[in-house]
Amino acid sequence: MVFIQSYCESNASISHTWVDDGIAPCFFFTLVPTTLLAMCFFLGALHCVFYQKFGTAMEPKFVPRTRLYGFQQLVSVLLLVQFASGAVWRAASGGELPGYVVLYGCFSALSWACAIGLLRVERRRVLVMDRTRGHSAVLLLFWAVAFAAENLAFVSWYSPHWWWSLENNQQQVLFALWLMRYIGTGLLFFIGLKAPGLPRKPYMLLINEDERDVENSGQSLLGSAEENQSTWTGFRQKVRLLIPYIWPQGNLPLQLLVLFCLGLVGVERAINVFVPIYYKNIVNELTDGSSWHTLATTVSVYVLLKFLQGGGAGASGFISNVRTFLWIKVQQYTDRVVQVRLFAHLHSLSLRWHLSRKTGDVLRSIDRGTSSINSLLSYIVFSIFPTIADIVISIIYFITNFNAWFGLIVFVCMALYLSLTIIITEWRTKYRRQMNEQDNKAKSKAVDSLLNFETVKYYNAENYEVGRFEDAILKYQVAEWKTNASLAFLNQTQNIIIGSGLLAGSLLCAYFVTEGKFQVGDYVLFGTYIIQLYTPLNWFGTYYRAIQRSFIDMESMFKIFEEQEEVKDEVNAGNLLYQQGKVEFENVYFSYTSGKEILQDVSFTVLPGQTVALVGPSGSGKSTIIRLLFRFYDVQGGCIRIDGQDISKVKQTSLRSHIGVVPQDTVLFNDTIQNNIRYGRISASDTEVEEAAIAADIHDKILNFPDGYDTQVGERGLKLSGGEKQRVAIARTILKAPQLILLDEATSALDTQTERNIQASLTKVCANRTTVVVAHRLSTIIGSDQILVISNGRIAERGRHEELLLKGGLYADMWMKQQQAHDSDSSSDTESKDRKSEKLQPPSTSSGHHHGH
């Protein structure tokens, strides 16, 4: 039968807070549930009143569906059941039942029932004007206090009134219940920071996004929301992208090197424990008057450990230097793989993406992204994990070898330090992201201005460009100031926490030394260990900021990685089996943007060896046909075939290996003329390059340059004239020797005489090859086997030159206008020559006679 004889156990009182090296159970298990219940009922009541009065019911479509929220509720219910069942078990086990046990069970069960109610209220209602995310301060404070209360049990590690000895069944059951509470409250606190059952954005923002249909417009609201989102958003996807760079797959020596470096990290952790211990032993042996041999041995071991450890934090020790040296190869591997894969990915993206890209932005994103991956790996593996390991080891060491109070001091300081560091750094994220954006804009403006140097000079816009660049720099510096100011605030907060913890621990340790419980060496050990611990911890904020900055810097790079290839090879795509070169367009539809079709129901056939010319006004779709045939884009309707094979079913590399293109606007690499021509076939010899240049009528011109074929063409070939660049492009295509040739106004930049020479060369090159020509000058395509007149995305007329002239349609009209323009130019040239010749003749006698008359 159970009796409640008194509130506390026999020979105990609630006024006694410290009994036998520990907190009195009666005092502890009265204070904790009373505090939790008071907090939950008073603050929870205010919470509910505010949510009922100023809140609104949350629409179900905005409430996240997540299993983690269900797990959160389940843990809360299990804790409630645990408190109630614990009291029932104590009552059923017989013997004396103190009153505080009943109060603890009842109050705790009530407070957790209240917390579950608050959790459900937050999921169903929301403060409309609340601009924050996550749980309310009431719930987070409740879970934090509950978890901290369970950690307070460690203070009573040596007390016989608690369950740590596990001597009987009752203590074992109590320990199991405490373990359940410890894990449960810890899980709720850390899951509560994520708030899985609540929207990740402020509710008003979600409503505005829904009303304005931001998903379709893709405009500012979503962008502004992203400014404030955590850098850890999408952490799993980021880590998944990083894994191939972390572990050098298929490279056994590098894998062994990684494991060896990780082993050195473990050795450093062990040395960090033994350095202050040996320092303590030196002090004790000096005060105790130990023998010289013993003292010398201890000092030698201490110095050896310090040599291995380095300057306090292991920053420049022997082991750290060896690890840094060995890690260079791993770092180079990571850097190489990231850059090569990103470069390959950029080349796999569609022409549409490259036409809309900003080169400055892309280059800055690549530079920052690749460098950030290396720093991220280094900080996580060699800074964050070792620091956390040092903290855990120190807490365990102080609890077991000193006193539970020291472990508590270290734990509270570390928890506060890490929590505030993470919270403030997350708050600073938006400023860092803004700084990156302004940096990108400034560099992008600079790159655009320099690339368009000639245009700037044409319009005397130097001052305008400098002003724009200065404005971008000023905006960048505003964001930079916010970043640095918030950094100073973070550093001061960290210093206050570290100083407070060091003061509390030092005073307590000094007190125990004066009481005779500790030796002087113990104080030295504590001071050495705690400073040794705080030194890397002081860098923890820097490490975390560096990791966060690396994630921010990688965001742009990850966005590039996430860009999907618009034109993809099918899974089972084969090679193009080129036979004769028959090209067929069958009912082709295509548009660059929805709602504006460029090609509509285009059908034509180019027989093997024939030349088909495409003519028509600008913007009619002529060049688009060339791009579709080269498969820069996939058609949206119909199909394109070569020798009966749908080009969307074959590999792009195979298709393009048979096609040679001379584009309308030729851009050359910043290299020699020889290498630019050789780009048509990399394996070509110097003789073959020269033969291609002769065929393109540029060989003699090249020989007149001071450096001949070694002449540098400049960025994008700016040192060459338009005609020279065009002829280099033609030579490059001749060198490739393709079976199918696409000429996109290949002679548009050439003078008449050079154009005739090039036409003769092209005629030889195109002989017995299927050719598609986009032409502006109709005189260049008179001999084509078929001429297609494109107008408004459709084939308006087709036939040979003579047939189209007889029809008297669009082609005949274009021909007449060009002939008239040509005749006008010829007559104006003749008149100008006549005027020049007149100026050169001497005055006639008739003019003198007239003057006299």
UniProtKB/TrEMBL annotation:
<keyword id="KW-0458">Lysosome</keyword>
<feature type="region of interest" description="Disordered">
    <location>
        <begin position="817"/>
        <end position="853"/>
    </location>
</feature>
<feature type="transmembrane region" description="Helical">
    <location>
        <begin position="172"/>
        <end position="193"/>
    </location>
</feature>
<protein>
    <recommendedName>
        <fullName>ATP-binding cassette sub-family B member 6</fullName>
        <ecNumber>7.6.2.5</ecNumber>
    </recommendedName>
</protein>
<keyword id="KW-1003">Cell membrane</keyword>
<feature type="transmembrane region" description="Helical">
    <location>
        <begin position="101"/>
        <end position="119"/>
    </location>
</feature>
<dbReference type="GO" id="GO:0015439">
    <property type="term" value="F:ABC-type heme transporter activity"/>
</dbReference>
<dbReference type="GO" id="GO:0020037">
    <property type="term" value="F:heme binding"/>
</dbReference>
<feature type="domain" description="ABC transmembrane type-1">
    <location>
        <begin position="259"/>
        <end position="549"/>
    </location>
</feature>
<keyword id="KW-0547">Nucleotide-binding</keyword>
<feature type="transmembrane region" description="Helical">
    <location>
        <begin position="140"/>
        <end position="160"/>
    </location>
</feature>
<dbReference type="GO" id="GO:0035675">
    <property type="term" value="P:neuromast hair cell development"/>
</dbReference>
<dbReference type="GO" id="GO:0097325">
    <property type="term" value="P:melanocyte proliferation"/>
</dbReference>
<keyword id="KW-0256">Endoplasmic reticulum</keyword>
<dbReference type="InterPro" id="IPR003593">
    <property type="entry name" value="AAA+_ATPase"/>
</dbReference>
<dbReference type="Pfam" id="PF00664">
    <property type="entry name" value="ABC_membrane"/>
</dbReference>
<keyword id="KW-0813">Transport</keyword>
<feature type="transmembrane region" description="Helical">
    <location>
        <begin position="526"/>
        <end position="547"/>
    </location>
</feature>
<dbReference type="InterPro" id="IPR039421">
    <property type="entry name" value="Type_1_exporter"/>
</dbReference>
<dbReference type="GO" id="GO:0000139">
    <property type="term" value="C:Golgi membrane"/>
</dbReference>
<feature type="transmembrane region" description="Helical">
    <location>
        <begin position="27"/>
        <end position="50"/>
    </location>
</feature>
<dbReference type="GO" id="GO:0005741">
    <property type="term" value="C:mitochondrial outer membrane"/>
</dbReference>
<dbReference type="GO" id="GO:0005886">
    <property type="term" value="C:plasma membrane"/>
</dbReference>
<dbReference type="GO" id="GO:0005576">
    <property type="term" value="C:extracellular region"/>
</dbReference>
<comment type="subunit">
    <text>Homodimer.</text>
</comment>
<dbReference type="GO" id="GO:0005789">
    <property type="term" value="C:endoplasmic reticulum membrane"/>
</dbReference>
<keyword id="KW-0472">Membrane</keyword>
<dbReference type="GO" id="GO:0032475">
    <property type="term" value="P:otolith formation"/>
</dbReference>
<dbReference type="InterPro" id="IPR017871">
    <property type="entry name" value="ABC_transporter-like_CS"/>
</dbReference>
<feature type="transmembrane region" description="Helical">
    <location>
        <begin position="496"/>
        <end position="514"/>
    </location>
</feature>
<dbReference type="InterPro" id="IPR032410">
    <property type="entry name" value="ABCB6_N"/>
</dbReference>
<feature type="transmembrane region" description="Helical">
    <location>
        <begin position="299"/>
        <end position="319"/>
    </location>
</feature>
<dbReference type="GO" id="GO:0031901">
    <property type="term" value="C:early endosome membrane"/>
</dbReference>
<dbReference type="InterPro" id="IPR027417">
    <property type="entry name" value="P-loop_NTPase"/>
</dbReference>
<feature type="transmembrane region" description="Helical">
    <location>
        <begin position="71"/>
        <end position="89"/>
    </location>
</feature>
<keyword id="KW-1015">Disulfide bond</keyword>
<keyword id="KW-1278">Translocase</keyword>
<dbReference type="Pfam" id="PF16185">
    <property type="entry name" value="MTABC_N"/>
</dbReference>
<keyword id="KW-1000">Mitochondrion outer membrane</keyword>
<dbReference type="InterPro" id="IPR011527">
    <property type="entry name" value="ABC1_TM_dom"/>
</dbReference>
<keyword id="KW-0964">Secreted</keyword>
<dbReference type="GO" id="GO:0033162">
    <property type="term" value="C:melanosome membrane"/>
</dbReference>
